[in-house]
Structure formats: structure tokens, C-alpha cells
What we know:
The protein is of the alpha+beta class. The chain has helices spanning 17-24, 38-44; strands spanning 2-3, 9-13, 49-52.
Amino acid sequence: MRTTKDGRVALLAYSALDRLHTCCGPNQPWIVMPTAALDGLQQAQPFQLLLLDIMIPEDKRQEGAS
């Protein structure tokens, strides 16, 4: 999840692992989640936007497990 410039919380989702690696880098932490589970996630950790396959600039990427 990321906070947008206007203060909204966005959930970033990627339609395939290769797109995640291309858009976020190879060390980005990730999980697999069926779309049906998004309602539960919304209840546990509210978000205002769901963004699909968004490219994150290299200087804004988070490093996670390799």
C-alpha cells in the first residue's frame, strides 16, 4: 500500500509476478491473494484506491526480501 500525493491510501496490485518485478523491482515483498479476499483486506486495512500494474520509479521502490 502507498499513500498518494492527495493523502489517499492505494493498494497496488499486479496481474502477474513478472509485472510486479518489472514495475517494482525484484526485491519487492509480495503475497498472492484472490480478488474475492479484497473485501476482507479492505475491512482490516482500509484503502481508497486499487491500482493495477503501476510502474514505481526506482527511487521510490521499497527493498524487501530477495
